[in-house]
Write a sequence for this structure.
């Protein structure tokens, strides 16, 4: 192999690894990301069936019903619209009525949001940033306590 | 008074860091011995001053001095003493002070131990380290001063965030910081080499122990953080692809690439320009990690405070250091001579492939971590990039890396013979096939992916063992000579083998947990039992216990196997009284390498409780694997060759391992 051939082999190898990586990243960015939606966005509709989303807002006061085997129903609201959520599992320690929450899952055909993940908060003052921004948009944000 | 001494020491250290930033580099460029001689004593003084400052803050915490704002916000008189001490770095200001302390510690170590480094290189390196120190001390003094007083002092503090009151927190940040900040030395060496316009094989040898040391601590720090999240957050996950985790993982990937490319540079004089770039990139990623974690652009347990001034300041540091060093690189790197030709199939070629895959996968993690931030800044659209993205991009890039791993160390330098190497790996290949078939046999063909994953793990481990055995030439010289040769192998060979074995072990643990873990979520009432895997858990009900600054509702479980009681688990819901903040304390019982994991959720009025129950087969391998990697790094650090200054006669006490 000449010097030039060696260099070309190396460049070809590097190029193909890069091409594969870029392809994977583009594909994954198209397909494997989850959009954040507020209850108003969801009620406005337009989401494809089975699309995974993150739903964020406040847990509506008095809406939490606990069933058997860790099934929980609650409503997420941005004070304008409200969406019913069903979740099976343990809720994060700081899940409370009237507090911000982010849930991830899909909307069932009956309009109920089936969450498979309710995001934990690490601190009692912590409002998920997405929720804070969405609430600011609705003019109900009072700022950090 | 003590607090003011700490504050004053910090200001003095800043002044010294300004001197350090200019004088030694000036001396190095003019070959002036007197100017260069300034660097070592100033490094030692800075370490002493920041040490005094750190001790003063720790004093304020231990004595619960609530006239200091930082202590008020993050401590409580009833907090256990251990957490009073660890609380020093459980907040923004204190953790920055720890960051700077480690920064100046590394400077002082290079000053004290780097005796066989040429004086110009050493002076310039310490000078560059002075720039970093100056930037971070200025940042602290301007925006994040831990010594600010408050009048009138309150009677009681606000306590530390409860999930940070844990022994894991005592260890995780210092380990991680030694790793992050350790790469600053490699960075300083690279910048110094660019300033002086000279890089050779010896440079790689001086840099290598520092890179190894930083890599060792970063590995342990990440593993510790992962285990902490696993048991403390109560969701039983070991890795979440959370941006904050990624922030520590990117420098790890780049640092791992650097460790490997430095070998090529040391042995063959090739890849010089690339290695210098990697050294810059690795520390840039550490700085980026600090920015992401500390600026408040991400919301997480690590984002202690969101003060825009701080974010802007760190962004400024980031831009100046990364932009400046890359500009310097573009300007000076063409001066560095390339050397060492090699064929694509060779040890060098394999290490280039390793570097290619590691840096590209670091880039994938980088995109996944920063894309949501960039998208939101540009379009205002909010997205989350989670595990599906990383499994799709990072996973496929790791597979060729793991498959190629056993080949690399067996290939000859310059020109390798892939067929000869394959012959030496036939045993490893046989074991891999056997393991894969066994998994399919016992778990059924629907678990073919898991079987292949286990196969890859076994391949990496068996490949590393085959490499060590083949180095000792077991096949040729017989068992007794082989054993003797095995003992006589350089410890860096053993280090590399253990590093690779560790990766294989981590892989086995991840695949076993992902494929075979069992999860149950249910409501359980006193005296009921639940079965998971081969175990039965009997719930004995909840009992209230009082701790120093919290109240526990403890659920008691007796664990039976085949009707015999084998263990107990006591998961709890804990309420920290000062902040009225609940946490979940998981009950974890280890059986061999596997674990049973119970955490309690909602407590019902009839004494029942919602529980989440896992059987996690071989989960501990994930962290054991990291320990094995760390052990490999320690072995490599003890390699004799690192102690021998390349161009000059050996001087034994020249490396940090002692």
């Amino acid at each position: 192999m000449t010097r030039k051939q060696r260099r070309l082999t190396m460049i070809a190898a590097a190029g193909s690894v890069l091409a594969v990586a870029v392809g994977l990243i583009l594909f994954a960015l198209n397909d494997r990301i989850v959009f954040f939606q507020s209850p108003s966005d969801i009620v406005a509709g337009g989401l494809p069936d089975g699309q995974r989303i993150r739903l964020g807002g406040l847990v509506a006061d008095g809406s939490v019903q606990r069933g058997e085997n860790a099934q929980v129903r609650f409503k997420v609201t941005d004070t304008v619209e409200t969406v019913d959520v069903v979740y099976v599992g343990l809720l994060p320690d700081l899940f409370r009525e009237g507090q911000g929450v982010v849930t991830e899952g899909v909307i069932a055909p009956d309009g109920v949001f089936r969450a498979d993940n309710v995001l934990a908060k690490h601190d009692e003052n912590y409002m998920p940033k997405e929720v804070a921004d969405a609430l600011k948009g609705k003019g109900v944000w009072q700022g950090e306590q | 008074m003590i607090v003011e001494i700490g504050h004053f020491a910090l200001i003095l250290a800043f002044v010294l860091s300004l001197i350090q930033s200019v004088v030694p580099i000036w001396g190095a460029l003019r070959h002036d011995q007197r100017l260069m001689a300034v660097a070592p004593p100033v490094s030692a003084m800075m370490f002493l001053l920041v040490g005094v400052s750190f001790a003063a803050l720790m004093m304020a915490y231990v004595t619960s001095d609530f006239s200091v704002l930082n202590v008020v916000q993050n401590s409580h008189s009833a907090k256990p003493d251990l957490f009073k001490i660890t609380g020093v770095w459980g907040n923004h200001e204190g953790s920055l002070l720890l960051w700077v302390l480690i920064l100046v510690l590394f400077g002082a170590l290079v000053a004290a131990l780097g005796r066989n480094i040429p004086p110009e290189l050493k002076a310039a390196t310490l000078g560059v380290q002075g720039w970093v120190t100056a930037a971070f001390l200025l940042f602290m003094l301007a925006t994040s001063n831990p010594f600010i007083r408050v009048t009138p002092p309150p009677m009681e503090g606000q306590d530390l965030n409860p999930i940070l009151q844990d022994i894991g927190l005592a260890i995780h940040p210092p380990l991680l910081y030694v790793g992050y900040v350790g790469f600053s030395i490699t960075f300083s060496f690279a910048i110094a080499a660019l300033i002086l316009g000279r890089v050779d094989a010896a440079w790689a040898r001086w840099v290598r122990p520092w890179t190894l040391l930083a890599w060792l601590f970063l590995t342990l720090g990440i593993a510790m953080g992962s285990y902490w999240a696993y048991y403390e957050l109560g969701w039983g996950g070991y890795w979440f692809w959370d941006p904050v985790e990624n922030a520590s993982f990117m420098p790890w990937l780049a640092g791992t690439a650097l460790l490997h490319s430095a070998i090529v540079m040391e042995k063959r004089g090739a890849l010089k320009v690339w290695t210098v770039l990697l050294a810059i990139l690795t520390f840039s990623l550490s700085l980026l990690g600090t920015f992401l974690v500390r600026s408040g652009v991400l919301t997480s347990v690590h984002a202690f405070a969101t003060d825009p001034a701080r974010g802007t300041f760190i962004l400024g540091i980031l831009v100046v250091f990364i932009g400046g060093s890359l500009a310097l690189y573009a300007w000076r790197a063409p001066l560095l001579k390339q050397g060492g030709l090699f064929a694509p199939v060779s040890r060098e070629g394999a290490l280039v492939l390793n570097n290619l895959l590691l840096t590209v996968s670091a880039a994938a993690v980088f995109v996944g971590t920063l894309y949501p931030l960039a998208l939101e800044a540009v379009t205002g659209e909010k997205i989350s990039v989670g595990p599906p993205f990383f499994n799709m991009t990072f996973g496929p890039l790791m597979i060729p890396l793991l498959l190629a791993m056993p080949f690399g160390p067996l290939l000859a330098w310059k020109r390798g013979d892939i067929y000869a190497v394959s012959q030496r790996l036939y045993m490893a290949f046989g074991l891999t096939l056997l393991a894969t078939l066994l998994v399919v046999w016992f778990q059924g063909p629907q678990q073919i992916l898991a079987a292949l994953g286990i196969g890859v793990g076994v391949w990496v481990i068996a490949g590393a063992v085959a490499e060590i055995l083949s180095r000792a030439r077991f096949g040729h010289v017989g068992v007794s000579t082989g054993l003797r040769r095995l003992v006589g192998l350089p410890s860096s060979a053993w280090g590399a083998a253990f590093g690779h074995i560790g990766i294989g072990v981590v892989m086995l643990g991840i695949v076993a947990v992902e494929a075979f873990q069992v999860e149950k979520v249910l409501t359980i009432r006193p005296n009921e039992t639940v079965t998971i895997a081969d175990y039965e858990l009997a719930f004995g009900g909840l009992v209230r216990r009082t701790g120093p600054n919290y109240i526990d509702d403890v659920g008691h479980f007796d664990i039976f196997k085949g009707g015999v009681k084998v263990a107990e688990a006591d998961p709890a819901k804990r309420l920290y009284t000062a902040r009225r903040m609940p946490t979940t304390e998981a009950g974890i019982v280890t059986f061999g390498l596997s674990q049973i994991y119970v955490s309690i959720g909602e407590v019902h009025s009839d004494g029942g409780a919602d529980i989440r129950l896992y059987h996690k087969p071989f989960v501990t391998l994930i962290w054991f694997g990291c320990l094995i990697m760390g052990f490999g790094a320690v072995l490599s650090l003890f390699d004799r060759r690192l102690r021998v200054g390349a161009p000059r006669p050996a001087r034994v006490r020249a490396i940090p391992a002692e």
